[in-house]
Design brief:
Elements: E1 9-13, H1 21-27, E2 46-47, H2 48-53, E3 64-66, E4 69-71, E5 74-78, E6 91-99, E7 118-125, H3 130-137
Antiparallel strand pairs: 1-5, 2-5, 3-4, 6-7
Length: 140
């Protein structure tokens, strides 16, 4: 990722929570910007969970239940090219869903479902305007 403009997505069962050391190491703990702030980190990854939290007042997000404890172990991490406030944005975050209703049924494994919720993030192709790109990259 370093020094490139290739969009990167990392997804899967990280087996740890959104603010865990594991996720912090993978993401480089980027600074999330608000309003019309522009930035982005060259080797940072942004969690779709945090991007969704900025758009929703929903306070329950879980992908796994163990002994009645709901946790988010599965993540979608994206590079700055997918981060709305990045000077190098190519794709704009459009939303995230978690399909996890089956986790609330004791017999879900017998029905053939996984013991993890399925997360889905969507993005719209919407590159940042040229003037913001020039600021990010410097004069030609």
């Amino acid at each position: 990722m370093k020094g490139t403009r290739t969009p990167v997505i990392v997804l899967g069962d990280i087996n740890d929570g959104q603010h865990s050391n594991t996720v912090n190491i993978l993401t480089e703990q980027p600074r999330y910007l608000v309003g019309d702030s522009l930035g982005g980190g060259d080797v940072s990854l942004y969690t779709a969970q945090t991007l969704q939290e900025y758009r929703s007042t929903r306070d329950v997000y879980y992908t796994h239940v163990h002994q009645d404890i709901m946790e988010s172990l599965d993540h979608i991490l994206v590079s700055e090219e997918f981060y709305d406030n990045s000077r190098r944005r190519v794709w704009m975050f459009d939303g995230m869903t978690v399909n996890n209703d089956h986790l609330n049924f004791d017999d879900h494994k017998e029905a053939g479902t996984t013991d993890h919720g399925v997360i889905c993030a969507t993005f719209k192709y919407k590159p940042i305007k040229a003037e913001a790109q020039e600021i990010a990259d410097g004069p030609a």
